Structure formats: C-alpha cells, structure tokens
C-alpha cells in the first residue's frame, strides 16, 4: 500500500543530479521552495488511495523532480516574448508598436551592457548633457534648430505645455481635442501640465478668426494636434499651419504642433497617407513640434520635441525634464534609426517604413509561396485573397494599404478556435479573423520570421 512515508526527504532529493542541475539554473532558494511545494501536493495525493500510481520512493522522487522542473520553468519564464504579427497592422500598439531596424537593435546591444558618455563631455573631461545625443541628427532630418527627447509623446506634450503655458492659456480647436487611446485624452494631459485649455471653434470647423478672437494677455501659445487616429469628413475646415503661424507672429505667440506620428519619410510617403512630414511643419514656422519615436518613425518608444532655441531651452530646463528623460538604450536606438533616415535608406532598412511602402505585388508573391507550402494541410485549407493592411497605432486614420492575404479556412474547428491555436505556438502568431476565416497579412511579418511562420503552420496539427 502507498503511504506518504515513501516520500524522500528534501535533503535526499537535493543530492540527485537533476535537482542539482535545477539549483544551478534557478538558484537554491527557488528550488527549495518548489520542492517543498511539489512534495506537499504529492503527499496530499498519496493519502487519497487509488488516485496516485506511485508505488515506491524512486517513483516518488522522479515525479517530484519532473514536477519541480516544470513548475520552475513556468515560474521563471519571461512574460515578455516575441510574437509574429500577421495582423497587417503596422504600428500595432498591443504588439509593441515599431520593430527596430537591425542597426538600431545592434547599437542597443553594443551600448547596453557597458558605460557610455551619456552625460559626460569627453573633450572637456567633465559632466555633459544627455540632451546632445540625437540632437544633431534630429535637426538634420527635420530642419529644426534643436531637439529634446523624452519618454514618449504624451510626456512630450505634457512637458512642452508645462514649460511654455503653465498658468496661462493654450488655444486649441474643438476638432482637435482627441483621445489618443487607452483613455488618454489631450485635454486631460493639457490640464495636468497646468496649462489652461482655451477651446475654440467647433468639432468640424475652426477658422483662423476663431483663434484670433480668443487671444488675450493670458494666452501662452496656439496648440495644434494632428488627428492621428480619426478622420472628420464632409463639411470641415481648419486653417493651414502657416496661417496660424502668421497669426501667432502678429501676437508674438508660438505655435506648437503635436504631430503624433513623426513622419520623416517626406516625399517617399505612399499616396493617401495623411501624415504630415515633420519637416513641413518646421518649414511652415511651427515653434515647437512633438511626435512619437515608435509610430511611423519606426524607432524606440520616445517623445521627440524639435523646434526653435528659445522655447526648447525653457523645455530642457523645466523640472519635469528630469522625470521624463530617456536612458542610453533609447538614445542608442533612436540615433541609429535617425541615421537610416539621414542616409536616405530608411525605406529599406527601417521595418515600419519598409512595411509602409511594400506593394501588394511583393506581399502577394510571399503569400502565394506560403499558401503553396500549406497546400493539403490537415487543419485548414489555404488560399490567397485581396485585402487591406492598416497603419494603426494612432497613425494615418482611414489609411487602407492594398495587400494580399493568406486565408486559412479551418476544416473542422471555428476560425476563433484556430486563432487560439496560432497564439499558443512559440513564437505565438497573432492573426485576424475576416468573414469566419483566419487571414494572415505578411506585410507585418518580418522577413527573418518568414521561415519560422512557415514551419510553425506546416507543423500545426
Ligand atoms: C500617439 C499620440 C500621442 C501620444 O504618443 P505616445 O508616444 O503614445 O505617448 C500624442 N498625440 C498624438 C496626436 C498622438 O497621435
């Protein structure tokens, strides 16, 4: 008869080679805790006759070893893992937005584990400023005099307003009081900065005269916010930026523009992509522009502030700057990404830019090859159909990039069931459902993941 007495002691277990190997991998404390946990569970199971097939001490020890190993593997598994984005949404907020360019990832690896001159002036041999990093490149690619980098664009908006409009009014059109996503609203961010929100115009129409009528001695600046994630169609109007700049100049007020996405592609922008280039806003005379580092720009999470010397020196020296600054890894990735733009080759080397400009024909060729490899699959039938990819991540609202999709029609299970299976793979594949079928958009599948994707789908049972 089996009794809990056959259970080996913790000390005996720890002498076994497998347990020793676990201690090397996970450390003594974690292994001890796991052994006690697993042994306790097994003891309870053994008091329930007929439930456990364990007959002797060796069997018990083996069972404990196996359970401890799998318990620790689960506990120590990283929570953040790579996934294959087959949704066709390029800047997918839930999937971590922009994948970095190879050069950017390499630069992070080179700098992350060592010391750097992050805040050290190597020529002078004394303390320097971290703000110099990426500054020259940002000026080059945007045409702005100077730049500051913070943690994300929401932080950039907060800091700009805190530094330039605290206790005074920021004039903004009612058509631009946007919710960024996840419940974050521009008017709330504005209020947190201590600026007073002075709304003008209506949802669909705001004219230069509306801004002019709101200007008083309380006014600090005119704020323009790009409608990154929605479109107003039909009977609409908003003044061109240069008109607002001219108005601002009459009253010596800076115009600040929150561009959201940070389009640096300029003339290479695909048709119909409604994302104003940063350089155009600077050229039109905006005193300050801010945008994300990890939306269309395709770099690390960051908020980038570019503009004229005077407002930026106030921004740089504001106390919040310390709370919102970025680390060496962000600078490393950002500099390398910007370098791709400065060299004029971002379109082929920065994944977001490459995905944005990929043609339906190119994607169709890859899709056809994948569908062919999947012919006769036991779980689903695969074919290729037309579809659309989107920019996503609060960029280019209403943009529809023509693409070709690999369509998977499950033979038995539902499409929802198949997507669960795909997400259970390692790496997980995230796909879309369209008309009760699963569709894979290869636009957002990185070339280096293509073989992994093919193999995972081929092996799916
Ligand atoms: C996305 C966005 C933000 C916020 O940027 P994060 O980098 O996500 O903090 C702010 N303003 C606009 C217009 C945006 O599109």
List keywords for this structure.
Aspartate Aminotransferase, domain 1, binds pyridoxal-5'-phosphate, 17 strands, Aspartate Aminotransferase, domain 2, seven-stranded mixed sheet, about 450 residues, alpha/beta
List the helices and strands and how they pair.
Elements: H1 10-14, H2 17-26, H3 28-46, H4 57-76, E1 84-85, H5 102-112, E2 120-121, E3 126-127, H6 135-142, E4 146-150, H7 153-165, E5 169-173, E6 179-181, E7 184-185, H8 186-192, E8 196-200, H9 208-214, E9 219-225, H10 241-250, E10 255-260, H11 278-283, E11 288-292, E12 303-307, H12 309-316, H13 320-324, H14 328-342, H15 346-349, H16 351-357, H17 360-373, E13 380-389, E14 401-410, H18 415-423, E15 429-430, E16 432-434, E17 437-441, H19 450-459
Parallel strand pairs: 1-15, 5-8, 5-9, 9-10, 10-11
Antiparallel strand pairs: 2-3, 4-12, 6-7, 11-12, 13-14, 14-17, 16-17
Helix pairs in contact: 2-3, 2-4, 3-4, 5-14, 6-14, 7-8, 7-12
The chain binds pyridoxal-5'-phosphate.
Describe the structure.
- The protein is α/β, with parallel strands linked by helices and 461 residues long.
- The protein folds into 3 domains: 4-76, no CATH class; 84-92 and 355-459, Aspartate Aminotransferase, domain 1, CATH 3.90.1150; 102-349, Type I PLP-dependent aspartate aminotransferase-like (Major domain) (Aspartate Aminotransferase, domain 2).
- It has 19 helices and 17 strands.
- It has helices spanning 10-14, 17-26, 28-46, 57-76, 102-112, 135-142, 153-165, 186-192, 208-214, 241-250, 278-283, 309-316, 320-324, 328-342, 346-349, 351-357, 360-373, 415-423, 450-459; strands spanning 84-85, 120-121, 126-127, 146-150, 169-173, 179-181, 184-185, 196-200, 219-225, 255-260, 288-292, 303-307, 380-389, 401-410, 429-430, 432-434, 437-441.
- Strands 4-12-11-10-9-5-8 form a 7-stranded mixed β-sheet, with helices on both faces. It has a 4-stranded antiparallel β-sheet with strand order 13-14-17-16. A two-stranded parallel sheet has the order 1-15.
- Helix 2 crosses helix 3, helix 5 runs antiparallel to helix 14 and helix 7 crosses helix 8.
- The radius of gyration is 28 Å and the shape is globular.
- The structure holds pyridoxal-5'-phosphate.
- Pyridoxal-5'-phosphate is lined by residues 152-154, 157, 180, 225-226, 228, 258, 260, 292, 303, 394.
């Amino acid at each position: 008869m089996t009794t809990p007495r056959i259970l080996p002691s913790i000390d005996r277990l720890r002498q076994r080679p497998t347990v020793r190997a676990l201690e090397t991998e996970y450390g003594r404390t974690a292994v001890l805790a796991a052994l006690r946990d697993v042994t306790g569970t097994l003891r309870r199971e053994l008091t329930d006759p007929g439930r456990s097939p364990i007959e002797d001490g060796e069997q018990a020890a083996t069972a404990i070893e196996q359970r401890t190993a799998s318990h620790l593997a689960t506990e120590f598994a990283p929570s953040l893992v790579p996934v294959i984005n087959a949704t066709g949404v390029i800047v997918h907020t839930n999937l971590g937005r922009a994948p970095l360019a190879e050069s950017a990832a390499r630069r992070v690896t080179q700098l992350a584990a060592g010391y750097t001159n992050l805040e050290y002036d190597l020529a002078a041999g004394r303390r320097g400023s971290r703000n110099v990093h990426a500054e020259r490149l940002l000026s080059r690619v945007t045409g702005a005099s100077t730049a500051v980098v913070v943690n994300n664009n929401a932080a950039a908006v907060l800091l700009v307003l805190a530094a330039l409009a605290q206790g005074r009014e920021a004039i903004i059109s009612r058509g631009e009081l946007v919710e960024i996503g996840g419940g974050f609203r521009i008017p709330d961010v504005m209020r947190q900065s201590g600026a007073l929100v002075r709304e003008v115009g209506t949802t669909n129409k705001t004219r230069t005269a509306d801004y002019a009528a709101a200007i008083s001695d309380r006014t600090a600046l005119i704020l323009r916010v790009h409608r990154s994630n929605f479109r107003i169609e039909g009977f609409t109007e908003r003044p061109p930026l240069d008109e607002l700049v001219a108005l601002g100049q009459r009253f010596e007020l800076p115009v600040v523009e929150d561009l959201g996405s940070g389009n640096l592609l300029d003339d290479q922008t695909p048709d119909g992509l409604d994302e104003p280039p940063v350089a155009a806003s600077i050229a039109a005379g905006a005193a300050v522009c801010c945008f994300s580092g990890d939306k269309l720009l395709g770099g690390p999470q960051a908020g980038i502030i570019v503009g004229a010397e005077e407002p930026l020196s106030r921004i740089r020296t504001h106390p919040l700057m310390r709370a919102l600054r970025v680390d060496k890894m962000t600078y490393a990735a950002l500099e390398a990404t910007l370098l791709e733009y400065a060299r004029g080759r971002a379109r082929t080397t920065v994944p977001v830019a490459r995905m944005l400009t990929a043609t339906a024909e190119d994607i169709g060729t890859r899709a056809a090859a994948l569908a062919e490899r999947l012919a006769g699959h036991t779980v689903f039938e695969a074919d290729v159909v037309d579809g659309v990819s989107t920019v996503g991540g609060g960029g280019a609202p209403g943009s529809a990039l023509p693409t070709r999709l690999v369509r998977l029609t499950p033979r038995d299970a539902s499409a929802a069931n198949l997507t669960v299976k795909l997400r259970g793979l390692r790496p997980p594949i995230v796909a879309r459902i369209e008309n009760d079928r699963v569709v894979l958009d290869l636009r957002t599948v990185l070339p280096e993941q293509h073989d992994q994707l093919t193999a995972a789908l081929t092996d799916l049972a």
